[in-house]
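Usage example:
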Amino acid sequence: MSEFALSGVKILDFAWVGVGPITTKYFADNGADVIRVESAARPDVLRLAPPWKDARPGINSSQFFASYNTSKKGITLDLGKPKARELVKKLVPWADIVVESFTPKAMRNWGLDFPKLCELRPDLIMLSTCMQGQTGPNALYPGFGQLMAALSGFYYISGYDEQSPCPPYGAYSDFIAPRFSASVLMAALDYRRRTGVGQYIDMSQYEASLHNLAPALIDYFATGRILGPRGNRSDRYAPHGAYPCADEDGHERWIAIAVADDAQWEAMAKVLSANDIDRRFDSHAKRIASAKALDEFINPLTHAHNAYELTHKLQAAGVAAYPVQNCVDIHQDENLDAFDFWHWLEHKEMGPSVYEGLQHRMSRTPGALRAAAPILGQHNDEIFSGMLGLGAQEIEALKKENVIM
Amino acid sequence: MASELLKGFRMLDLADEKAALCGKIFADMGADVIKVEPPRGCSTRTIAPFLEDLPGPDRSLYAIAYHAGKKSVTANLESAAGREIVAALAAKSDFIVESYDPGFLDSIGLGYDTLAKNNPRLIYTSVMPFGDTGPARNYKWADIITWAAGGAMYMMGEEGKPPLQMSLPQAGLHAGGEASVASMLAHHARQRDGIGQRIVVNMQACIVWTLMNEQAMPILHGDHIQRTGVYTGSKDTRRKMVYRCKDGHISTLIAGGSLGGASTKALVTWMNEKGFAAPWMIEKDWTTWVPGMFMALTERDRFEISDLEDRIQKFFLTMTKKEIYDGTLKRRILLAPVATVADIAADLQLAAREYFVEVEHDTLGRRMTMPGAFAKLSRTPIGAPRRSPKIGEHNHEIYGGLLGLSDARIDELKASDAI
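Running the assembly step on the lines above writes:
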């Protein structure tokens, strides 16, 4: 019975770190069989990164790795060894899609590039996703997502002013590119269903991410204007930003507010009991023009309020507002709860831990976190013996030679 | 030219800035995307900044960017005839993406249940700030609200100063991308059995997803990230991510071990050539240097991190962004310039891959340069998009061609303000 949207789709996944695994997670959580080919000699760097179960490092206890690899199976091969590559070649005919995210020369050097793999599966779809694409002078750029967020312009538009950049947290662009790569892979699969023809997809994470910066790029090309950091100032809303609220348990609290027009301004002023309003603030255009002074006017008015209570009052009056939530708050957020967002999964070594659920809900074929991420080599026997029919002795020998590892 | 990937499939785009990117991705992939706008135009056309700061429905840079490749028809949802025409379009469409207030389209007879009766194949994707069931589902919205609710804002900025949004709001773009993925998932289910479905995209969840697992930190480590400006990591073990240079900023994250050892060694070697490295740095085995970012540090770790950060800062101040980036590319150092749009526009890698495309905008009397294909496809390449449409530019083509309405009927609908 096919109950998931992608039941029956098969992916051989050589990708590691962020963008590749997040792309194939969409497939795995929606019923596709995804086999991750890992190396114990050079493990996925996410296996070496926090957060760890109980804050204790371990190759099988990184939640960072676990989160992006739910619902997948895992095997371990040292692709530097010819025998390992022979095993890969036996798996390729099984796969609808091959995904990899090494720097461009790796698959070619192993004889596992698209033309070679097509000899084994002529209608193969293959996605290569690296930092800057498969071609061009910087194709071999060895970065990771955090640097890509700087290179693709997101750091520069984050900060109070030119002198004080404040980058977004983490590898920001790693959460842009997978929405493009998952979409296009599914479209390629559908195209193949209609035409019988596979293809090769070269996705530069740099090029995909720049779509989240498109208006500023177009503006620069047309007029030379450079969008820079400007705190929370907006061309459309005033007030617009984060305003201080009463501390809770010694922790700072802020509320985000965005006021779009005069009616909302008046409603907000009423909720905050704002009196003696300066002439500088008597129209929406004037408020936008004097945003800094406006912030200074608002700050003392929000300061005594509880952020959640003030949110209720402002929203009841028709003003856009919400507490600025931290990572403790989001676990208690009623709206994420109502969406059934958080999930506890039992991991083979980590035991139960909390995972982000799906960001959308489908009425008829909903996806699911079907299983926790595999520990290193968890499915070696199932795949090598069950799928490829290798005998126990043969597998043992390959393990001794560190082919399977 | 649009890709052949989704040729022959039609999407009705009733989304505003909460999901305009979804239709853009579909148009890039070759679907026929029809933007259905109110007669005075979609609210996205009023998003500043405008080309040359002159407001106008064809001049919003947001609309120029994210409506490229789409067609536009107008329909007044306040009039019965306008609603009928949208229902007729839905009967001939494969996808709908919308971002009206939750329940609004249901209340005017354009909800999924009604439209699916005439078109069971329909995939109907709704993008909502807090989902369809959350207590805040009817809250007033602006992009910053989702940025705050989803946890991204809290972590951007400096301690004691306000949390920050980016200068170009991002929440609607993540939600639009997610709507595209979800719509394609439903498409696969439909290709199997011919039946569509209803999808709700939760914008708040889309932003939580961008937190790179910081969400698990309080539960697993009993610790969470503070706002620390150019640093990352928890309070006692933070690591600098941004350094000043002659003409701007540089981002790098010093690390050792298998991930960063070779890179840090190469950086130290370069610094040593120019007299900026300390003797201990030259002797250090960086491949085994792994003071964890979330783990307890020794006094020695603290000294090494701070000495390295100080000296890197002094070293970078002697060079420009470009000099440093060019130098690190040769030496394979993990580093990137904090690039401005001007740096990106001049980037040789993007030029070599012919990334940017020129789009003729006869409406503006000029060509516009835009980001090109988000991926390079061997069989069904994504070409430059058509320019963003004028309000109702395709009324005759769609209402006449697709729905078979006569010119007289279309004029009548116009006169009654239905379209």
